Amino acid sequence: MLSGVTQTTDNAAAEYAPRRRFLPRIHRAWIVAAVTFVTIIGGAAFNSLPGLLIDPLHQWFGWSRGEIGLAVSLDMALYGLTAPFAAALMDRFGIRRVVVVALSTVAAGALASYWMTALWQLMLYWGVLVGLGTGSMAMAFSATVTNRWFVARRGLVTGILTAAGASGQLVFLPLCAWIIDEHGWQPASVTVALAALVVVPFVWLLMRDHPADVGLAPYGGTYVEKPAPTTGAAARTLRVLFGAARTGPFWLLAGSFAICGASTNGLIRTHFVPSAQDHGMHITAAASLLAVIGVFDIIGTVFSGWLTDRFDARRLLAVYYALRGVSLLILPMLLAPAVHPPMVFFIVFYGLDWVATVPPTLALCREQYGEDSAIVFGWVLASHQVGAALVAFLGGVARDLTGSYDLVWYASGALCATAALMALLIRRRQDTGVPAAAG
């Protein structure tokens, strides 16, 4: 009798064993990566909205495009200047706390703008609060998550998290444009605020700062103890800046990348939609074109990384900037009420070129500054946002003064030619094992 029970138990165990084998437990790292992906998508909502608000705010409050552009430029500048310190904040206070505070700050700024009545409030809400919040969730967020939680599949995870920004842009640009067109700018602002608040509980409940917090090894690696909070990261960030600033390549990289920001985030992301509206294009159609740029942005970045492994990064940058400049010179002739094939070609090409400059710029930072290259790139990225901020403001001023964006397109095309020359002037560094920025 006992043997029969034992046999029955063994049969049951054999029956369920294959099921356990085919249902492996998902490593916590993938859950953290999924939360990061959703968080970046939520953050993309705020990056999508400023360019759509220029005309509605101009018509609602009577503010000039230059004044509205100044608030957008403040947002971009603070985003760039906050980004180099974001990793230090996460090392000191933890990823989860920093991201929750950042999302809450951005949501507060977007929600408060619903009741704004004065220009200084736009500067505070969309300029300061949104700028600081989004800057704290810049590239350092996905890089920190990837470095802590993954040893294997880092390249795959980096690509997925990079795609999150473009995915969010693809979702929120047409959605916000439709909301503005049908219901006005205020519901659109509330929508992006809610997008951030919805993500907050997931970050707080599912995000963890380090695999050791839940007793795990990083995916594909071995268990390591969680390091103690660091307090000198911000000081090191400044020391590396001062050291790099004493070298010529830093200024050439920072200057060319500032032009990159000026001709992408500052120009196209901020002023393409209002410029298309000037030519009679519907806001939803213009926003959809801008969203498509985000799709080809992913393809262009991956292909640029492949090229960077095989060709001189300086020459790649020169080609990218030169082609971008030519396309900007042609754009004023392509703007029309309807979307036609030449405009589609421009959108596809510009999407491929949008952040294709990142892999070769990062490779040159690595070549020139060795172990300090990540921090140096953070400051070069800050220059990117400062360049974007200047054109976001000056583009609006030019539209106010001339009644057209044509001058902005032509000037930006000339700047891209300058960036191409700057890239070629960067001297190759042979002794890449010695950090050039060391003070």
UniProtKB/TrEMBL annotation:
Transmembrane segments: 29-48, 68-89, 98-117, 123-144, 156-180, 186-207, 249-268, 280-306, 318-338, 344-364, 376-395, 407-426
Keyword Transmembrane: yes
Residue ranges occupied by any Major facilitator superfamily (MFS) profile domain in the UniProt entry: 31-431
Membrane association type: Multi-pass membrane protein
Pfam family, one: MFS_1
Keywords per UniProt: Membrane, Transmembrane, Transmembrane helix
Cellular localization per UniProt: Cell membrane
InterPro entries linked to this entry: MFS (IPR011701), MFS_dom (IPR020846), MFS_trans_sf (IPR036259), Proton-linked_MCT (IPR050327)
Highest taxon, organism lineage: Bacteria
Protein name: MFS transporter
Organism: Streptomyces mutomycini
